[in-house]
Specification:
The complex is a heterodimer. By secondary structure, chain A is α/β, with parallel strands linked by helices. Chain A contains 9 helices and 10 strands. Chain A has 2 domains: 1-77 and 155-246, P-loop containing nucleotide triphosphate hydrolases (Rossmann fold); 88-152, no CATH class. Helix content of chain A is 35%, strand content 22%. In chain A, the strands form 2 sheets. In chain A, strands 6-7-8-3-9-10 form a 6-stranded mixed β-sheet, sandwiched between helices. Chain A has a 4-stranded antiparallel β-sheet with strand order 2-1-4-5. In chain A, helix 3 (93-103) runs parallel beside helix 5 (137-148). The longest helix of chain A has 16 residues, at 167-182. Chain B has helices spanning 2-16, 21-26, 30-67, 73-89, 91-99, 104-108, 114-148, 152-164, 167-184, 190-220, 223-232, 234-241, 245-254, 258-289, 311-325, 327-333, 335-353, 356-367, 373-386, 390-393, 400-408, 414-443, 448-475, 484-490, 493-517, 522-551. Chain B folds into 2 domains: 2-289, no CATH class; 311-551, no CATH class. In chain B, helix 10 (190-220) runs parallel beside helix 16, helix 10 packs across helix 17 (335-353) and helix 23 packs antiparallel against helix 25 (493-517). Classes of the chains: A alpha/beta, B mainly alpha. At the A-B interface, helix 2, helix 3 and helix 4 of A face helix 15 and helix 21 of B.
């Protein structure tokens, strides 16, 4: 479903590589957790998958579509939740969801069913008519999630999706993520919360300084370090961690 | 004081960081460096442009005034005009600086007194307004000093007056804007009230300025006429500069009366202290109130809330709602739609009061002037105003870094975004030229064919300027901004768009003169202009679509 093949990216000529010859393969049915310290290249990788950035070298494929060559088709397969939800705060929640529905060509009947279902799940019915800037951080995150999933995409790409959500909403979203994968779809998400990755993911990738330091199931990652927790593995693999943003 | 200076520094950096040379050195990305340089150049260009307009006018006035033995009138006029300008032009700036900054809640959480925050914000406003006053006070005073031959102390007094002249108007505006904010907070839709109130104030202001300046502007072309105007209105002019006592104290002080100067300085200082003391109480509450938005608890179950439309319409609606719902955007973009109406309306009204359209027609045919002249002049007036279109010139910049990232993640061709932005821009521009044509048709019913030709030229001109303005913004948008005011005003997009518009307007005027020299009639003139502008418009549109495809992604 998601393929990064020898992908490199730097933001300008003199900058260090934000991603350095990265290879990543995520299959259908996998719930993939992407972890790494600040500035490791997580957001860059996600932006490349979503077609926001173009790779300097290499190929990014989503559900078989080359993001550089057939961007629109690749993007149609993705539901993307950005890490920053401070976007269209002058639109009402409903206007935003309709905007996303129109962009992805969702019929009126389908969008009604989807919007009502998710507004109900996330308890946002009363807020849908208000402008997004009146929402709390968690409410903004919820409306972004509903908008990203409005076209029922096979690939979910979520950048820090649980940040700001209350425990109930976080639990519901995690359930939705699991259910989505059980249908043979893919969920790729970045997180700083190692416990979430540990409990939720079927596969985990650890990135540091633009390169994938380790990847596999939790058991595979632990195989070298018997009995080590994900936290211990993470600290060991990212020991030379930098702080600059990428 | 430490907190005050820290706050002031932050306020100034937020506004002028782009102009700081040391910041330019720190930029390593060549693309960013180019952008920063172009911003500095744009500021310099604007300053030179205004100086180029004001200084020759002041020299011209000094020549006339010295013939009348009224040299001191030039600094008096400069002080009065500077105060009036600050009073009128700074209204929205002061209001947004005080009450619409995104930092209100952030600052409120810090252990800083409301008085300190207000003082820092007002000081930032004072520095900005003093920079603008420079254009009025310094050249006029220096021209006067050289012409009359003054001592060195005059220049010391000049500096003191220059630094003081904007204080009292700022204090008055701070009180008025606080009052407006207090009143608007009584109403649920306060932003709408702010936008409507702001537009009404702007309309009143332009009508006032136009009615005041139309006489002297005509006379500017003819020194004899100007001299006559000055002689006839000598008493009125002197009276006007003596109407506002604080202006009189500063003027007399500048011209040598130390007592009056001390009085002027003391009053301004007292006004500043009083303003801070009186407003610091309500300031915190009112600025925080602006961060709270009324919620709409309506439950949306009706099918009409789930209507689907095309991606183009979705982008168009998003763009339009953004403009309408942000007061700063509305106040900066809607003038594109109503300024041509005011401009044409005023000119039409003047024509009517000076004998009517019938007389003009007779005069034109008697003088053997070309048939398309009225259409060309009318088109020129409409285009000049409609060509300044911040809605299109900052359309990509306003998306901001995160919004732009989000839009580029969606499966939409960049051309669709460009078309939606063009549709919003054209809606404003075409509304402006169409409404102006209707007003012209009402005021000058005898010139309907000329007005129709002007309308066609106006629409095609808007297509060209809007396409080019958007093209520039796509190629180098300013996506990193903190406030909406910065998004629409601080970038160079509007300025570039305006310069492009003026360039094309000059080309259109040149083409019109060429056609008139060939003695063509109105119909031929209209057809040729429409064909040429249509072809250029098509080329610009094609170029815009190609640029959108190539450059909309900002890696």
């Amino acid at each position: 479903m998601i393929d990064l093949i020898n992908v490199s990216k730097r933001y300008h000529k003199d900058a260090p590589k934000a991603l350095d010859n990265m290879n990543l393969h995520v299959e259908g049915g996998q719930l993939y957790g992407f972890i790494g310290p600040n500035g490791a290249g997580k957001s860059t990788a996600i932006k490349l998958m979503c077609g926001i950035l173009r790779p300097d070298e290499g190929t990014v494929r989503i559900a078989g579509h080359d993001v550089a060559g057939d961007r629109l088709a690749a993007q149609q397969q993705i539901g993307y939740v950005p890490d920053n939800n401070d976007l269209y705060d002058r639109l009402t929640g409903m206007e935003y969801l309709n905007f996303m529905g129109d962009i992805y060509g969702v019929s009126a009947a389908d969008r009604k069913a989807h919007i009502e279902k998710y507004l109900n799940i996330f308890s946002l019915e009363d807020a849908a008519a208000s402008q997004i800037r009146t929402y709390s951080k968690g409410m903004k995150q919820k409306i972004m999630v509903i908008g990203a999933l409005i076209h029922n995409p096979p690939v979910w790409v979520l950048d820090e999706p649980l940040g700001g959500l209350d425990p109930r909403a976080a639990h519901l979203l995690k359930e939705e993520m699991r259910a989505h994968c059980q249908k043979g779809n893919t969920v790729f998400f970045s997180t700083h919360v190692l416990e979430v990755a540990e409990k939720l993911c079927t596969r985990i990738g650890i990135i540091q300084k633009g390169t994938l330091r380790a990847e596999g199931t939790l058991e595979e990652l632990r195989s070298g370090e018997k009995g080590a927790s994900l936290e211990e593995l993470f600290l060991e693999l990212t020991d030379d961690g930098g702080e600059e943003d990428a | 004081m430490r907190k005050f200076f820290a706050l002031l520094r932050i306020q100034l950096l937020a506004r002028y960081a782009d102009l700081k040379p040391s910041n330019l050195k720190k930029i390593t990305d060549p693309k960013e460096k180019k952008k920063a340089r172009s911003t500095i150049l744009a500021y310099i260009l604007v300053a030179v442009m205004f100086a180029g307009m004001i200084i020759p006018y002041e020299l011209f006035m000094m020549n006339l005034l010295s013939q009348l033995g009224m040299e001191e009138m030039l600094p008096a006029l400069a002080v009065t005009l500077s105060m009036v300008c600050t009073l009128i032009m700074s209204f929205f700036f002061i209001m947004t600086s005080l009450y619409f900054g995104k930092d209100a809640a952030y600052l409120a959480a810090m252990p800083i007194k409301s008085r300190t925050v207000l003082s820092a914000k007002l000081t930032q406003v004072w520095i900005s307004e003093t920079l603008i006053s420079t254009l009025f006070i310094l050249p006029a005073s220096i021209i006067y000093g050289i012409r009359v031959g003054v001592d060195a102390m005059f220049y010391l007094r000049m500096v003191l007056v220059w630094l003081t002249v904007s204080i009292l108007p700022i204090c008055i505006v701070a009180f008025l804007s606080t009052l407006l904010i207090r009143l608007s907070s009584l109403w649920k839709h306060r932003e709408t009230m702010m936008t409507v109130g702001g537009i009404l104030m702007m309309l009143a202001y332009f009508v006032f300025v136009f009615s005041m300046s139309s006489g002297p502007m005509d006379a500017m072309e003819d020194p004899a006429m100007m001299m006559q105007l000055l002689t006839d209105n000598k008493a009125t002019l002197q009276q006007a500069t003596r109407l506002f006592p604080p202006a009189v104290w500063l003027t007399d002080g500048l011209l040598g009366d130390w007592g009056q100067l001390v009085l002027g300085l003391a009053v301004n200082a007292a006004a500043a202290v009083f303003t801070v003391l009186a407003l610091s109480g309500p300031y915190r509450k009112l600025s925080l109130l602006q961060t709270q938005v009324p919620e709409n608890k309506k439950v949306l179950k009706d099918d009409k809330h789930f209507r689907s439309s095309t991606p183009f319409m979705a982008c168009f609606k998003r763009e339009w709602r953004q403009i309408c719902r942000v007061s700063t955007y509305a106040l900066n973009t809607f003038p594109t739609a109503f300024m041509p109406v005011i401009f044409v309306g005023m000119i039409g009204y003047m024509l009517m009061s000076e004998g009517g359209a019938g007389e003009l027609k007779t005069a034109l045919s008697t003088a053997g002037l070309p048939g398309g002249l009225v259409a060309a002049v009318l088109a020129g007036l409409m285009c000049f105003m409609a060509g300044i279109n911040p809605a299109i010139a900052t359309a990509v910049s306003r998306e901001g870094r995160n919004g732009h990232g989000m839009l580029t993640s969606l499966p939409v061709k960049p051309q669709v975004y460009a078309k939606a932005k063009m549709a919003v821009g054209m809606l404003l521009s075409v509304s402006g030229v169409t409404a102006a044509s209707i007003v012209a048709a009402v005021l000058m019913p005898g010139f309907l064919p000329d007005i129709a030709v002007a309308l066609v030229i106006g629409i095609l001109y808007c297509l060209i300027t809007n396409a080019l303005s958007l093209l520039f913004d796509i190629r180098s948008p300013k996506l990193d901004w903190m406030t909406e005011t910065e998004a629409i005003k601080q970038g160079t997009g509007t300025l570039k768009g305006m310069l492009v518009g003026l360039g094309i307007l000059l080309a259109v005027a040149g083409a019109s003169v060429g056609l008139f020299l060939l003695n063509v009639g109105l119909m031929v003139y209209g057809l040729v202009m429409a064909a040429v502008l249509g072809v250029i418009g098509w080329l610009c549109w094609t170029l815009l679509m190609r640029t959108a495809e190539k450059s909309y992604w900002q890696d």
